[in-house]
């Protein structure tokens, strides 16, 4: 049996007619920039995130970049974040000219360890950017408390965690701003690139909206230097078709995870730890195994899609060698990079597929 890590064709098969109709509607009007679909999606994502207001943008990366630029972060500044994330989190900090300052992760959740943040705050610190990795939110109460104490904005990189929950809060609604990605492999994925920023601060919203469009207001007059960070209405149209399915898809992912958890309990396979304060959306189901690379080969030989998120922590990336970080600086992130493996958890997995994945994982090392 063949089980891919993710099967977007299976998802598309159920919504093809609606997506085609929605895209066609945009094309007929030839409102190819902005327009009602973008506005409708902004409203609905804000509501789904329990936020006042949202700004559709061109990608999750541009969501983060726009927020950093709108906070006037630049050369000489520092932004605190995790080294165990997708590159974009840190790439955006570096592109503003600011210095990324890393804090190691909690080895159980893979999210930034709040107890290590305060010692990294200096008079140059301008923001804290936790990442809600794999669908589970970071431990936001202590992060918010530290940020308040030092009057720092919190930027939630929620690219992998749209509608995920922490206590009575939704991802993106706790910090100054939350950033979402609609990259096709995210839980709410477009038919190309897209992203969204959510906020409860209406004044900040104004600035984000102006920065999205070259800092222009009124048209052709620029008080600020922004970028072209606009969300494509064709993406908005497709996303509006998908959004009503998101909760049912997240439930199916949790059900699949629960099945794997029961199959792996009492074995050497370490299943994902979910903070009891959190409801995850399982963007990834990530196990840990000491012989991870051999297990990965075993799964691939048996036609099971799996992937390492992420094989190299960001502080050890070549492009950041000038920051002066070295091996051993963030042991929890480094150890995770050597042991994690994501298994297929997408909603359309059949019982047979889940069985096959679990059987194949468990047969590793048993000689068959
Ligand atoms: C996907 C992702 C991004 C970037 O989103 P894009 O839409 O691909 O630009 C940023 N941060 C994290 C944690 C991500 O997973």
Entry summary:
This protein has 368 residues and is of the alpha/beta class. Helices cover 36% and strands 12% of the residues. It has 2 domains: 8-103 and 111-244, Type I PLP-dependent aspartate aminotransferase-like (Major domain) (Aspartate Aminotransferase, domain 2, 3-Layer(aba) Sandwich); 246-363, Aspartate Aminotransferase, domain 1, CATH 3.90.1150.10.
Q: What would you note in describing this structure?
A:
The protein has 368 residues and is α/β, with parallel strands linked by helices. It folds into two domains: 8-103 and 111-244, Type I PLP-dependent aspartate aminotransferase-like (Major domain) (Aspartate Aminotransferase, domain 2, 3-Layer(aba) Sandwich); 246-363, Aspartate Aminotransferase, domain 1 (Alpha-Beta Complex). 36% of the residues lie in helices and 12% in strands. The protein contains twelve helices and twelve strands. The strands form four sheets. The chain has a four-stranded mixed sheet with strand order 1-9-8-5, with helices on both faces. The chain has a three-stranded parallel sheet with strand order 3-2-4, covered by helices on one side. It has a three-stranded antiparallel sheet with strand order 7-6-10, with no helix packed on it. Helix 3 (36-48) crosses helix 8 (233-242). The model has no long low-confidence stretch (mean pLDDT 97). The structure holds pyridoxal-5'-phosphate. Pyridoxal-5'-phosphate (PLP) binds at residues 59-61, 85-86, 88-89, 131, 157, 159-160, 181, 183, 193, 195.
